[in-house]
Amino acid sequence: MDILMDVSSGLFLLVGSFLCLTGGLGILRFPDFYTRMHAVGVSDTLATAMILIGLILHNPDFFVDVKLMIILLMALFISPTASHALANAAMHNDLSKQKNDKSNSETTSSNP
Amino acid sequence: MAFLVGVAFAIVRMKDLLAVIMLLGIYSLLSASFFVAMDAADVAFTEAAVGAGISTLLMLVTISMTGRSEHPVRHKPLLALAVVIITGSLLIYGTLDMPYFGSAEAPIHQHAAPRYINDSMQEIGVPNIVTSVLASYRAFDTFGEVVVIFTAGIGVLALLSVVRRREYTINDDSFNHSMHEQHLILRIVTKMMIPFILLFAFYVQFHGDFGPGGGFQAGVIFASAVFLYTMLFGTSTARQVINQSFIQLLAATGVLLYGSVGIVSLLIGKEFFDYSALSADPITGQHLGILLIELGVGITVASIMIIIFFNFVGRRNNLQHKENEGD
Amino acid sequence: MLLGLYNYWVVIVLMMVGFYIVIAHGNLIKKVVGLSIFQTSVFIFYISMAKVDGGSAPILAEGIKQYSNPLPHVLILTAIVVGIATTALALALAVRIKEAYGSIEEEEIQKKDNQIC
User: Fold this and answer.
1) Domains in chain B: boundaries
2) Which residue has the higher pLDDT, A112 or B248?
3) A110 within a domain of the structure (yes/no)
4) Position B310 pLDDT exceeds 60
5) Which residues in B lie closer than 8 A to residue C5 (C-beta atoms)?
6) CATH class of the domain at C2-52+67-116
7) Host H or E run for residue B24
8) What is the DSSP string of chain A?
9) Would you give the DSSP letter of residue C62?
10) For residue B148, what are the CA distances in angstroms to A110, B47, B151, B154?
């Protein structure tokens, strides 16, 4: 049982780090802002979830597990919302969809 | 550490201030993770909340008022480079004498620290040594720090406050309705998240005795929940929720609470900030004293951060209204 | 010796980068950023001095013999919060300077001052 927990937690951590790395690679290689957001938003959220699940499996203490699960829940809420906020801001300010490097047409804050 | 140096050099070279500010946020976050690696849990918490959160936000609001890019330097700053290199080499020469990193026989670990580590549990009874030193052994320094924060808030008030006129409030309201559909998802998720953030702030405040935490971090987290609300729902709505004069009163109350704990100890007959005067059992007195002053610190920090933010944003709204009227 | 003192040297490099930004760049906001880098690197310096090999965070718990030194932690906690207070004031001053002079570049401000005087 212990070995199973150890191996599975290690597996989750590895998968999580791999996803994080590919998300970073995606930022570098994709041509446009929106595709970059898509790469990072999906893979980073899943990577965070995987790493947290790996940590939960690694730790036998109950209270720490509850806290980690709460963090997992909040990360699942917050991370996609952040990507949505960025993409929304870009859309609202008519960031063009062609080959473009980090453009200068986004506003700095969303104060009405 | 190498990442930190890379980020710092990138900040030097870039001209676009928005990118510079984002890199500063990354720099703060990297140093927070470095602090975790150095076993400094409280410090990492505070640095992450303050540096990567509040500081970045304030700078963003500032450059939205002052302009986004930097003019290129006209002359080669050779003199500056020379001064920097000379100072750097002098400092490196100074460190050659220092004990190696992490050694347990270094002088700073020999004199004051063992006394605090060994005696803190009997004298104060609080597991978190940093909180016990900050709130009990060195309470006077923390008092000075709270007053410094309060003064900074007053300074920002003096520099940036704007007398709000009635017609501005009506304009802001019409903005709100048109923005509603665009930010719908953000608003709903924020409404769900804000109670948790506030709950977390209270948890950090009252758990400062047992784990990393305490008044400062809690105040900053509380303030960031209010910032989130203000950013998404508009300043007029936020001002209705949190009245400006109430917040100013609250800030002063925090400092007063802190100071009165000390004065009460004086009046009972013991020294300034001697908590054993607060109750029959000295350990209970210490706990009570620490609880009260952490509360005072948390209240002051939260309200001052809110005041600073509202003043920056109010100034920006004022500028925007002036531009709209001028057209 | 290189490995022993490596941390401190990297911190000194960071301090010098921050110092250079403050004295060599003209934009006021950039100067505030440089000051912030300088401050944070000083914090890193103190915290790396506090670390003891094999120690753990200074929270009393069962079974832990060696703790890292808590005194620099207290100092830096205060310093971080004071740092943000001064940064907020500096940014407020920058906003007012922009309104009064129309620009936040150091050379243009000095030119305007010389014109007025």
Assistant:
1) 1-70, 126-327
2) B248
3) no
4) yes
5) 95-96, 98, 100-101
6) mainly alpha
7) helix B17-37
8) -HHHHHHHHHHHHHHHHHHHHHHHHHHHH-SSHHHHHHHHHHHHHHHHHHHHHHHHHH---HHHHHHHHHHHHHHHHHHHHHHHHHHHHHHHTT---SS--S-S-S-S----
9) T
10) 31, 18, 5, 10
The chain B residue lying nearest C104, using CA atoms, is B66
* Residue of B14, B18, B224 best to disrupt the A interface, most CBs of A under 10 A: B18
CA distances from B152 to B50, B57, B225 (A): 15, 17, 21
What does the pLDDT look like over B149-189, one tens digit per residue?
A: 899 888 888 888 776 655 555 555 545 555 566 677 888 88
Interface mutation target, options B1, B96, B159, chain C, most CBs of C under 10 Å: B1
Q: Which of residues 9-48 of A touch B (CB under 8 A)?
A: none
Q: Please tell me which residue, A45 or A100, carries the higher pLDDT value.
A: A45
Range of the domain at A51: 2-92
Q: Could you give the CA distance from residue B198 to residue B200 in angstroms, rounded to a whole number?
A: 5
Q: What is the residue type of B256?
A: L
- Cα nearest neighbour of B316 on chain A: A111
Write down the ipTM of this complex.
Answer: 0.87
Chain B contacts of A78, Cβ < 8 Å?
Answer: 189, 193
Total domains in the fold of chain A = 1
CA distance B128 to B211: 6
Which of B:8-27 have CB within 8 Å of C?
8-9, 11-12, 17, 20-21, 24, 27
B61:A84 CB<8 A: no
Residue B302: HSE in the Cβ half-sphere, 13 Å Cα cutoff: 28
pLDDT digits (tens, 9 = 90+) for B23-51: 888 888 888 888 888 778 888 888 888 88
**CB within 8 Å: A78 and B189:** yes
The confidence score (pLDDT) of residue A98 equals 56
Q: How far is the C-alpha of C8 from the C-alpha of C105, rounded, in Å?
A: 34
Please report whether residue A103 resides in a domain.
no
Chain mean pLDDT for chain B: 78
Contact between B255 and B144 under an 8 Å Cβ cutoff? The reply is no
CB pair distance less than 8 Å for C95 and B133: no
